[in-house]
Amino acid sequence: MHSELNWCKQEYINQILKLDSYGLRGIAGRSNIERPTSNVEWGNLKLSADKILKSEEIFITTISLLENLMKKDKCNTVQLDTFPLTKKRWSDFETLFGERGACGGCWCMLWRLKRKEFEQRKGEGNRAAMKAIVDSGEIPGILAYFRKQPVAWCAIAPREKYPALDRSRILKKIDERAVWSISCFFIDKRYRKKGLSLQLLEAAVNYVKNQGGKIIEGYPVEPKKDKMADVFVWTGLASAFEKAGFVECVRRSETRPVMRYYV
Q1: Mean pLDDT, 10 residues at a time, over the chain (263 residues)?
Q2: Where exactly does CATH 3.40.630.30 map onto the chain?
Q3: CATH class belonging to 81-262
Q4: Directed axis angle between helix 124-135 and helix 90-97, to 10°?
Q5: Closest Cα to residue 220, out of 202, 201, 241?
Q6: In angstroms, rounded to a whole number, what is the distance separating the alpha carbons of residues 41 and 52?
Q7: pTM value?
């Protein structure tokens, strides 16, 4: 234990001070502490690097404080790298979605097809349909990575790419303005409840801005209760959209607001 502490002490302190992009690695990689944001309140952790280096007891206490902060979700943040889904990233998309195509063989094709056609294509048919879209050069959404591994997805496209929206009484058009739609999220279950939805929304907004879009629309859920099963919130939560700067425009169902971001 003593040799392990001596071996990694300086590197650990460097990471505490720098809060580098790869996060606090912990003792020889054993502690699973993710990178906190720059404005995290460190509370009692105000020890200088010099003091920590001089005292093994203080160093061990520092480790304990950091781990306790993580357990309290005060520094349990995952910083994503996001990219448009292109042909070269298709294999990563497949890896993230897995054999089930995210959920029930969907492959993020639900809003793009008639319901009967969607049901008939479930599984391989929908996978092939999404691959054809990507192979054509169309960008169907944003793929997000954590430490170079695909961990999350956000579908974003001009609303006309999702004809099923207009067949919905709740989600039909508000007006005739040109709109981009955020239609779906899928996050690896190991990374849920870590603030990834907000990062995905910000990435989607930036992507639309770069494409010259002026309005981004979302169709989140606002649960009646504090908790709702993940399978029911694949269009996102209203609270995340609000944090990202979206405003409610219409609500045709008690739990389903239509929200917009105006560039």
Answers
A1: 40 45 34 38 43 57 55 61 98 96 95 94 96 98 96 98 96 97 96 93 97 98 77 88 97 96 96
A2: 81-262
A3: alpha beta
A4: 150
A5: 241
A6: 19
A7: 0.71
